[in-house]
Fold K Homology domain-containing protein.
Amino acid sequence: MSSMGSLSPYMQYSSGGLSPHHRSQSAATELEKFLSELLQEIMRLTSLIGTSSYTEQDPLEHGSPLSSMSSGRGVDLNGCKHFIRIDVPVDTYPNFNFVGRLLGPRGNSLKLVENSTGCRVFIRGRGSVRDGDKEKSLRDKPGYEHLNVPLHVLIEAEFPSNIIDIQLNQAREIIEDLLRPVEESQDYSPYRAFMLIMDKN
């Protein structure tokens, strides 16, 4: 068994042959500890991917994803940078909360899309700022010019040229699926279902 490396404490057995859930601690406590370790491992592996969420960037860069090109920071020599813009059908469905649907609970849906595709996703345009008064005050400031155009999603990818289209299309498919209005009770998208499961834990 030593050849297998160290196992999670949840998977180890005592010298008497009892599994951890037979010890004096309750199974719920052990499960909670295991899930905490699992979450830490997921976060560690996610950080190795090299993607960062939209909340981890400089506010000015957050205001305009194109600023990296204008600031002189070049693209990796082995890669290229592409953008896709997807318009949000606010005129067709004026009462549907597209921003909430894209963000998901605590912003986790958007983070999940970014982490699974390696692309950056930005919600831009009128209605992308939660507070309407704040949006009006920001509208004419540098970096917030996007608030003068209709609501849209901007997907940014920086990959080697042989895989960039694959990653962008994958992100586009997920975003377009999230932009299809459905009744909340009939929402079975895998990302939405995953977020609901995470909320219950």
